[in-house]
Here is the input.
Amino acid sequence: MGRKIGGLFFNTKKRRIAAKPCMQEMISFLSCLSQNQMNDEKCLHSKELLKTCLDDETAKSKKKGGSMNYHLQRLNKKMK
Here is the structure.
């Protein structure tokens, strides 16, 4: 639930770290780079995995018509 420190109450649920997408792929790519003296030509497989993961995450995060400006513009057109 929460934690009371002194006279203050902290909600510990808000302080949790959110899941970081593509972290494993980035770690494997960076470790490959460090093992190969920053030569990314030898790390093509890790690089492609990271790229596809990032592309998938950006596709997930895009929302069609979900922003506040979209709804305000849509309502403004109906009011005219």
Summary: Helices lie at 23-35, 44-61, 68-79. Residues 12 and 53 are 30 Å apart (CA to CA).
